[in-house]
Design goal:
The chain has helices at 16-30, 52-58, 71-85, 96-114, 125-130, 132-143, 149-158, 161-170, 179-182, 196-200, 203-212; strands at 4-10, 36-40, 64-68, 121-124. By secondary structure, it is of the alpha/beta class.
Length: 215
């Protein structure tokens, strides 16, 4: 914990793995070792993690970054993740529309707790899609690490969604984070797009979530 130089907070399926792999590829391309980063879902992911009160106490002096995403898109992606890795969570809400209605309170609770944290930097998955270089650069600068623009652009090229999807499926890049990822042919790179919720949910459920998420 004392070696941690930055904490990045996100709800599951908000682009965390993409950002993590980008930083790893940047280190390889630049030969610059970045300081230690703690990645956390504040206890709202598959793995047990510090809840918000413990977090506030332990990391009050560490730079904190908040990675966000459209809440509906996060929930749709989380459904597909659970379907592959943790099917027991789908009991009683096997269908996508049932699932997102059931777990809408889960993501609302996360954002309300995260909003108690003072973040030095915040950006979204959507902003990463629009200007990934500036988003990653802002993290590197906040870490106080050296910047190699050429290496960063090389890492970004290697982590374009189609390239990353291919690398994961070939085994060139291992994005698994636990036993659940190793089973059932599960891959972290699924669609990599903005707006999946509107495409996959019924209009009624999509409108329901929009009203629920007026935080």
């Amino acid at each position: 914990m004392k070696d941690t130089k930055m904490v990045i907070v996100s709800y599951p399926k908000s682009g965390r793995t993409w950002l993590k792999v980008l930083l790893e590829q940047y280190q390889k391309a630049s030969n610059i070792k970045l300081p230690k980063i703690l990645w956390t879902h504040l206890g709202y992911g598959h793995v047990s993690e510090p809840e918000v009160n413990s977090f506030l106490s332990a990391y009050r002096d560490v730079p904190r970054v908040f990675l966000t995403r459209d809440l509906s898109d996060s929930l749709v992606s989380y459904y597909h993740d659970d379907k592959a890795r943790n099917a027991s969570k789908l009991v009683g809400c096997e269908q996508l529309d049932q699932y997102v209605r059931e777990y809408s309170t889960h993501i609302i609770e996360f954002y309300r707790k995260a909003n108690r944290i003072n973040f030095q930097l915040q950006f979204s998955y959507e902003e990463m899609q629009q200007n990934i270089e500036e988003c990653v650069l802002s993290v590197i600068k906040l870490l106080g690490a050296d910047v190699d623009r050429d290496a960063l652009r090389q890492a970004i090229k290697e982590c374009e969604f189609s390239a990353l999807q291919k690398s994961e499926r070939s085994g060139e890049i291992d994005m698994r984070v636990g036993e659940g990822h190793m089973a059932r042919g599960f891959f972290k790179t699924r669609k990599g797009k903005v707006g999946s919720a509107k495409e996959e949910l019924s209009p009624e459920t999509y409108e329901y979530l929009k009203k629920e998420f007026e935080l």
